[in-house]
């Protein structure tokens, strides 16, 4: 039996000072005593002990692009970020769009330090109009379906996918993007695009497909989850859809909450991602959406790339930034310390809510449940240093003197075992 003593424990959505007893990977009791059967004592030193964080949107790049990230490095980075369960997107090479490839992916995922729940693609190779074998992939263990990286262009394809996914009580996570409106843009349409002379991405590339999908979701009843929303109109559409009883949820990334295209001063691709950083007006609407509950959760969209894929300016570099090692400290500093919300609410957005919405065995500290926990020193102040990252991807805009953060992950436990 293990004991975590002096825990400032987030239990039942309240902070309490207690000790935790862990036996066979599960939480056995929460107590003020120290039992004599304890074999190992971990001193949490009055730091916050939270349910392990849950990120439903990461890219671990294996198989196919292991120079960017591997399941090992990605999961080590996740543990370093306080995460114990992550949802891995299927835009790996090959896309796991049949049972054989999917089972191979699940096998590879055994290399992970954290729990990986695996998305399967909605359509073959993520880009075709032909649906993947949805029922078979669900049976093989797909926790949800997504073509992340690509919008589903054909409304009939989307409608059929929603019908079949809803029959399974599974989830459809959509990267909403109309390819024609996207028009090979690389940055948000606005003053920064004009100043830098770069091809721009219209907001309607996101919102027009979102509006369509919400109506299809209404018709089919599927749980429709919107990935990385980035615009004011997206928040408004989702607010209206929720009021109308449509089964929709959505995520926002820390970068869309903390940065806008006004922060892009030079042609630096560490600010290039899809969807792009939008305007200050959009950013403010996203923050309001988080505060009023329209936005359900924070997800990082951790998208590691190699150095020479990101040092070619906006036109030629890859889309995406890393996020799993910076997410909690950034959100804690800029949302909790700044007074916008309490830490209970942040943990809900980064653990309890995503687990609940995707039906994952995670997100709460409960007697009898697996001990997936993080110990976080909320008072430790520091700057992110690239040499501290465990991810292979160093493509983040959050290093440098502007980003002094508080909140350092000290230890992470999965099934009661220390993984960071
Ligand atoms: N977000 C990104 O800019 N890139 C993601 C794909 C995606 O999330 O759409 C990637 O896989 O690199
Ligand atoms: Zn995406
Ligand atoms: Zn993504």
TrEMBL record:
Specify whether Zinc is a keyword of the entry. Answer: yes
- What cellular component terms from Gene Ontology apply here? cytoplasm
* Catalytic residues of the enzyme: 301
Pathway field of the UniProt record reads: Pyrimidine metabolism; UMP biosynthesis via de novo pathway; (S)-dihydroorotate from bicarbonate: step 3/3
Under catalytic activity, the entry for this protein gives: (S)-dihydroorotate + H2O = N-carbamoyl-L-aspartate + H(+)
Record PROSITE patterns: DIHYDROOROTASE_1 (PS00482), DIHYDROOROTASE_2 (PS00483)
Q: Which family does it belong to?
A: Belongs to the metallo-dependent hydrolases superfamily. DHOase family. Class I DHOase subfamily.
* Protein's recorded name: Dihydroorotase
Q: Which source organism?
A: Companilactobacillus allii
Task: Extract the HAMAP family matched here.
Answer: PyrC_classI_B (MF_00220_B)
Name the residues that bind Zn(2+) 2: 148, 175, 228
Q: Which GO terms describe its molecular function?
A: allantoinase activity; dihydroorotase activity; zinc ion binding
Explain how, and how many, cofactor molecules are bound.
Binds 2 Zn(2+) ions per subunit.
Q: Which cofactor does it need?
A: Zn(2+)
Q: Where is Zn(2+) 1 annotated to bind?
A: 57, 59, 148, 301
Taxonomic classification, please?
A: Bacteria, Bacillati, Bacillota, Bacilli, Lactobacillales
Which residue positions does the secretion signal occupy? Answer: none
Question: Which gene is annotated as encoding this protein in its UniProt record?
Answer: pyrC
Q: Which InterPro entries match?
A: DHOase, DHOase/Allantoinase_Hydrolase, DHOase_cat, Dihydroorotase_CS, Metal-dep_hydrolase_composite, Metal_Hydrolase
Function field: Catalyzes the reversible cyclization of carbamoyl aspartate to dihydroorotate.
The residues that the entry says bind substrate are: 59-61, 91, 274, 305, 319-320
